[in-house]
What we know:
Layout: H1 6-20, H2 29-43, H3 48-61, H4 78-85, H5 91-104, H6 110-122, H7 126-139, H8 145-149, H9 162-174, H10 180-185, H11 193-202
Helix pairs in contact: 1-3, 2-3, 3-5, 4-5, 5-7, 6-7, 7-9
Amino acid sequence: MGPVGTTARVRAAYAFGVLAGRSARQVSPSALQGAGIALLQMIVDDNRRTRIAGSRVAGYVFAAPIDGGPAPVRPNGLAGALVQQLNQPNDDEQEAAMEALGLLREIAVLPTLTDVYQRARSRNDGDAAAAALEALTRIGDPSTRPLVAALAGDSWGSRRDEAGLVVAYARARFLQDGSVDRLRDATDDRRLGARARAYLAELGQPVP
């Protein structure tokens, strides 16, 4: 992840994420410290592909644990660097930053993510709205519940795509209205299965 070509750097970052595992359970603290500095440098790099890879991998390896264990120690400035990516004009970059901030459970960005969600819904941008809602759900603050409750009668949540699955995840976490069954039904779906299983794990539900 050091000063090498863009393609090699991006591949090395994703490979590190796979080997480290979520919340870096497979990495020693000293190795993670060095990797964190390299990922932070990627997030502020001039190359868009590098920034996206750095954001996604950093969010995954520094994610707040779902098992209640101690969180990995983040590099200083990680959350701030990710917030800066929300101001980039590229949709993929914004969504990578939202994914990372949600995994980190960065509560300070709740107002920003709520605003992103509402603006995305108003312009029918399903991908951005789903990314913001997923992040809000992962953070899990009670202030998000009214926003999710409004989705109970919203046709947007009945879609059979990634956005619809995110809505089911949000409703299962905040409303406990049986939407978890939709996640279970999606576990065998070739396109949505991996995400549905990840959501079930985060909710503390058995994963098929």
